[in-house]
Amino acid sequence: MECVGFIVTFQRGAEWAATGKVTQKVPGDFPASNKDFSFSSDVRRWKGFRPPSLKTILQKAATYEYGQNEEILSQLRDYIQSHRNSSESRRDCEKQLLSLLKSNATLAAKMTVCRNLRVIGSETSVPVLEKMLIQKNTSDMARYALEKIPGVSVNRALVKGLAKSNGNVRIGIIASLGQRRVSDSVPALGKLIHDSDSATAVAATTALGQVANPEAVKVLEMAMTKTQGQLQIQVAASLLKCAGQFHVQKN
């Protein structure tokens, strides 16, 4: 009796089976109670309705694997959406989501949690996500959450993660630094322009173009004289992006 869709379908079906008619109206929040405000027609106002607890939802979600029925994921998303407007509720939700990340839940379940932390996460999430950031199996999901969480501690975590990583994990972190336009990453990104791995060099160059501050421009201008081929083309493109960003800021 926790899913709005189930409650409505069951009760209307029972009425039809007993009387051959269906008189119960479909509530305003069918099939999910994820609206910010409740109305008199909503199933949440029905007598006997018991809203789901996040603890119960997460217990079920912890074993989720890709390809399975996604009903439990919908319940989790609905719960988070309907509790995101209260700072107290967000803190409680975040605490429980982080507990799942620290458990032996499946990777698919942890990815789902990171999607929701992207929406309600705060700097409280950083210590847990920072550990996941440098692990191959969890780096992408951690970055996905961190990219939208406000706060300087997120930027510091990404810069630290850059120094501790390599390969595709490092390339991903570089991309996140660019997305967040982290100024403190410029020195490290400048060094990576000359990395022996071409994908890393291109990623660093691209990120500097996204950071687009005076320090990034200086690094890119110096790189123009020390690079060649496709990498030099990317350096030029990043300089143009910086110029475009400066023009927007000026206006």
From TrEMBL:
SUPFAM superfamilies registered for this protein in UniProt: ARM repeat
InterPro entries for this protein: ARM-like, ARM-type_fold
Protein name as it appears in the record: HEAT repeat domain-containing protein
